Amino acid sequence: MPQRTLRFRIRQDGRVEESVTGVLGESCQVLTEKLEAALGSVEVNHQTADAFRVNQEENQSISTELN
Questions:
Q1: Mean pLDDT in runs of 10 for the chain (67 residues)?
Q2: What is the value of pTM for the model shown?
Q3: Cα dihedral sign, 22-28-33-39
Q4: Which of 7, 30, 36, 66 is surrounded by the fewest CB atoms within 10 Å?
């Protein structure tokens, strides 16, 4: 299992930048949803290539259901 990392950078003007690595697909949004709600409104959301990757286990379960 890859290492999952959440990093927060607090700028001088009070804005918070969040970056997540090691989380695939929509799991990232689920993981950070409550944190973002507690911090305030989200102004910008940039998805990385990992957001579009499918976890191997998810891929296998979908294949099994189709057969």
A1: 82 88 83 85 79 62 50
A2: 0.60
A3: positive
A4: 66
